[in-house]
Amino acid sequence: MNRAGARAWSEVDDLVQDVFLIALKKLSSLRDDAAFGGWLAMIARNRAMDFHRRKRETEELNEDLASKSRSESDREAARVLEVICGLPEAYRETLVLRLVEGMTGPEIAGRTGLTPASVRVNLHRGMKLLREKLAFEEQL
Question: Whose CB has fewer CB within 10 Å in the chain, the N or C terminal residue?
């Protein structure tokens, strides 16, 4: 077995162990013994989704991106942040927490007191508005 395969099996073993540790800790929350299979599957699915969200793929930089100067990237980031600051408060706050602070939707909900559904809506609408404003600026 190659290294990548061994690493993948190691990750699977770790995830299985995590699922059973979580299940053991939350066993008292299981209301119906007949629902154990579905309950355990839900824990496994949620843990797998968390793992894949956190796992970041890496790519080599292409020459165009690598040659881009640092000051140009800084100017572009400052321009995007300026556009974000011009958005309505609900969109601005959630976008800054997501794009600048790197927070997840549930973390944003916890910080702002919004429901996770409201955070998703604000992020979606805010990103749409941000794209539109940036595209409009590009046309000028």
Answer: C
Tens digit of pLDDT for each residue in 38-78?
A: 888 888 888 888 887 776 666 665 666 555 556 677 788 88
At 110-122, the pLDDT tens digits run: 888 899 999 999 9
- Rounded Cα distance between 20 and 40, Å, is 8
Give the whole-angstrom CA distance, residue 76 versus residue 140.
Answer: 15
Cβ atoms of residues 119 and 65 within 8 Å = no
Within 58-102, residue ranges assigned H as helices are 63-67, 70-85, 89-95
Q: What angle do CA 98, 123, 62 make, to 5 degrees?
A: 60
